[in-house]
């Protein structure tokens, strides 16, 4: 084993690990007043790690990637792209957090440290080529997330969200670990490549149950039906910057991890996993669309929107083709911009006392009091609904096109029909903003940095986003091809 090459390939994780340990010492010595400085340094560390990812993506010498630590970790185009998305989401979540927590006086230096720890875990997840690496990365991310969900200790909703997330997350981890043990028992190895080779051909009942349990544990992490029950409660109770982080970075990591496990470890068992993914995709699309209709809390509504969008991503994965995975990755990029933009807009919903507002009724007449925020909200809602010419439409079109190309026309037709149902509640939000009598609850509290991020993300999912297709299409196609 060449440790020099292994350390070279894992430079992003090494940078973040060393940085997080330094930040812990700074937090211990500096106390509460060091929070802002550590946040700035954490953003710088994420940018530094991203620079190495960009080098891996643009240098022809790394075109085919490479394995590290005896096949436990893989650096390739797929992991590089997904890590870049994760780091970008973490950066934005860190930038918008201090001002939100200042209102409650709850911002502490532990927040950026926990974000970095979660990001390290997610980086390991998307590069895992062994069940042990997968589990260690998953738990590092999960343990950080449990604390982040309950970060505001004086808020009972935040504490409840953290407890619910922990209990249900422990259940999902147990299912995943039991599935891994079954697969290991029948394959004789935890390596994805060995599992794929050993479990080729017809599966007996034992390994089939193992595959089902592994996919069930991963379905919890991506909040797919029927393992979605934690999502609305945690998204509503957690602080809004944390919710924005949960809906973006861990979602990318979990979807990428699920994709790698299915293609690398269970790729030869298409008949075993494809039925599961098709059911989970359709169930997530339908439930996410229907359950959101009656919601009056904007964060719960966006939680069901997240479940709905995961269903569309899984349509691309269900095809089992490079085109389908490429479409899924493209959808992930667009989803990241839409979701982060939506939650940052929610952070701007404050009354004259600085209290966070979350009800849909408080958005009434927003177009008259804050026309810029209202326009951005409308762009994100219409894009999430997949209404042309906004960029969200193109992401949905790609996954449906991949499904049709793979001979899965009924799946595409049902997905399109369900997306029409989902469009109802997105349009309802826009209707409240522009056509209801003004509630005059939301006051102007905008900050230049937050407004700039909202504006940039709104432009990214506007029709201007189509100009990025010549750049994004080959990157996502190359990343997908790395798995095949």
TrEMBL record:
<feature type="transmembrane region" description="Helical">
    <location>
        <begin position="77"/>
        <end position="97"/>
    </location>
</feature>
<keyword id="KW-0830">Ubiquinone</keyword>
<feature type="transmembrane region" description="Helical">
    <location>
        <begin position="301"/>
        <end position="322"/>
    </location>
</feature>
<keyword id="KW-0560">Oxidoreductase</keyword>
<comment type="function">
    <text>NDH-1 shuttles electrons from NADH, via FMN and iron-sulfur (Fe-S) centers, to quinones in the respiratory chain. The immediate electron acceptor for the enzyme in this species is believed to be ubiquinone. Couples the redox reaction to proton translocation (for every two electrons transferred, four hydrogen ions are translocated across the cytoplasmic membrane), and thus conserves the redox energy in a proton gradient.</text>
</comment>
<feature type="transmembrane region" description="Helical">
    <location>
        <begin position="37"/>
        <end position="57"/>
    </location>
</feature>
<comment type="subunit">
    <text>NDH-1 is composed of 14 different subunits. Subunits NuoA, H, J, K, L, M, N constitute the membrane sector of the complex.</text>
</comment>
<keyword id="KW-0874">Quinone</keyword>
<feature type="transmembrane region" description="Helical">
    <location>
        <begin position="328"/>
        <end position="347"/>
    </location>
</feature>
<feature type="transmembrane region" description="Helical">
    <location>
        <begin position="12"/>
        <end position="30"/>
    </location>
</feature>
<dbReference type="GO" id="GO:0042773">
    <property type="term" value="P:ATP synthesis coupled electron transport"/>
</dbReference>
<comment type="similarity">
    <text>Belongs to the complex I subunit 2 family.</text>
</comment>
<dbReference type="GO" id="GO:0050136">
    <property type="term" value="F:NADH dehydrogenase (quinone) (non-electrogenic) activity"/>
</dbReference>
<keyword id="KW-1003">Cell membrane</keyword>
<dbReference type="GO" id="GO:0005886">
    <property type="term" value="C:plasma membrane"/>
</dbReference>
<feature type="domain" description="NADH:quinone oxidoreductase/Mrp antiporter transmembrane">
    <location>
        <begin position="128"/>
        <end position="422"/>
    </location>
</feature>
<dbReference type="Pfam" id="PF00361">
    <property type="entry name" value="Proton_antipo_M"/>
</dbReference>
<dbReference type="GO" id="GO:0012505">
    <property type="term" value="C:endomembrane system"/>
</dbReference>
<feature type="transmembrane region" description="Helical">
    <location>
        <begin position="207"/>
        <end position="230"/>
    </location>
</feature>
<dbReference type="InterPro" id="IPR010096">
    <property type="entry name" value="NADH-Q_OxRdtase_suN/2"/>
</dbReference>
<dbReference type="GO" id="GO:0048038">
    <property type="term" value="F:quinone binding"/>
</dbReference>
<keyword id="KW-0813">Transport</keyword>
<feature type="transmembrane region" description="Helical">
    <location>
        <begin position="403"/>
        <end position="427"/>
    </location>
</feature>
<keyword id="KW-1278">Translocase</keyword>
<feature type="transmembrane region" description="Helical">
    <location>
        <begin position="275"/>
        <end position="294"/>
    </location>
</feature>
<feature type="transmembrane region" description="Helical">
    <location>
        <begin position="109"/>
        <end position="128"/>
    </location>
</feature>
<dbReference type="InterPro" id="IPR001750">
    <property type="entry name" value="ND/Mrp_TM"/>
</dbReference>
<keyword id="KW-0472">Membrane</keyword>
<keyword id="KW-1133">Transmembrane helix</keyword>
<feature type="transmembrane region" description="Helical">
    <location>
        <begin position="165"/>
        <end position="187"/>
    </location>
</feature>
<keyword id="KW-0520">NAD</keyword>
<keyword id="KW-0812">Transmembrane</keyword>
<protein>
    <recommendedName>
        <fullName>NADH-quinone oxidoreductase subunit N</fullName>
        <ecNumber>7.1.1.-</ecNumber>
    </recommendedName>
</protein>
<dbReference type="GO" id="GO:0008137">
    <property type="term" value="F:NADH dehydrogenase (ubiquinone) activity"/>
</dbReference>
<feature type="transmembrane region" description="Helical">
    <location>
        <begin position="372"/>
        <end position="391"/>
    </location>
</feature>
């Amino acid at each position: 084993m060449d440790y020099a090459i292994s350390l070279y390939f894992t430079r992003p994780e090494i940078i973040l690990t060393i940085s997080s340990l330094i930040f812990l010492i700074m937090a211990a010595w500096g106390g509460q007043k060091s929070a802002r400085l550590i946040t700035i340094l954490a953003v710088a560390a994420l940018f530094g790690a991203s620079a190495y990812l960009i080098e891996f993506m643009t240098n022809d010498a790394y075109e085919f990637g490479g394995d590290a630590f005896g096949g436990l970790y893989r650096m390739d185009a797929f992991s590089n792209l997904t890590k870049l998305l994760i780091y970008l989401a973490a950066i934005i979540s860190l930038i918008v957090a201090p001002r939100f927590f200042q209102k409650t006086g709850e911002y502490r230096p532990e927040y950026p440290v926990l974000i970095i720890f979660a990001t390290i875990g997610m980086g390991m997840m998307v590069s895992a080529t062994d069940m042990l690496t997968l589990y260690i990365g998953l738990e590092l991310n999960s343990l950080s997330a449990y604390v982040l969900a309950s970060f505001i200790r004086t808020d009972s909703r935040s504490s409840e969200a953290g407890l619910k997330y922990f209990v249900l997350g422990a259940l999902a981890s147990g299912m995943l670990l039991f599935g891994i043990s079954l697969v290991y028992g029948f394959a004789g190895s935890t390596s994805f490549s060995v599992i794929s080779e050993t479990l080729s051909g017809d599966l007996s009942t034992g390994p089939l149950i193992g595959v089902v349990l592994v996919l069930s544990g991963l379905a919890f992490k991506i909040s797919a039906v029927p393992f979605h029950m934690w999502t609305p409660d945690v998204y509503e109770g957690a602080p809004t910057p944390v919710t924005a982080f949960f809906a973006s970075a861990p979602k990318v990591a979990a979807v990428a991890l699920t994709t790698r496990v299915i293609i690398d470890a269970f790729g030869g068992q298409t008949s075993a996993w494809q039925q599961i993914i098709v059911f989970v995709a359709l169930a997530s699309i339908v439930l996410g669309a229907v359950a959101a209709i009656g919601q009056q809390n904007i964060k719960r509504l966006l939680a069901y929107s997240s479940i709905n969008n995961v269903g569309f991503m899984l349509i691309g994965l269900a095809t089992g083709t490079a085109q389908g995975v490429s479409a899924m990755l493209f959808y992930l990029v667009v989803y990241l911009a839409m979701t982060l933009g939506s939650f940052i807009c929610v952070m701007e919903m404050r009354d004259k006392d600085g209290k966070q507002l979350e009800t849909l009724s408080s958005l009434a007449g927003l177009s008259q009091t804050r026309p810029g925020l209202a326009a951005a909200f409308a762009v994100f809602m219409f894009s999430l609904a997949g209404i042309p010419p906004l960029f969200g439409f193109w992401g949905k079109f790609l996954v449906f096109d991949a499904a049709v190309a793979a001979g899965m026309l009924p799946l595409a037709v049902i997905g399109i029909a369900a997306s029409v149902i989902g469009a109802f509640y997105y349009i309802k939000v826009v209707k409240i903003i522009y056509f209801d009598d003004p509630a005059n609850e939301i006051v102007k509290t905008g900050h230049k940095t937050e407004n700039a991020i909202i504006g940039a993300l709104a432009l990214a999912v506007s029709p201007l986003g189509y100009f990025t297709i010549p750049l994004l299409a080959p990157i996502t196609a190359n990343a997908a091809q790395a798995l095949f």
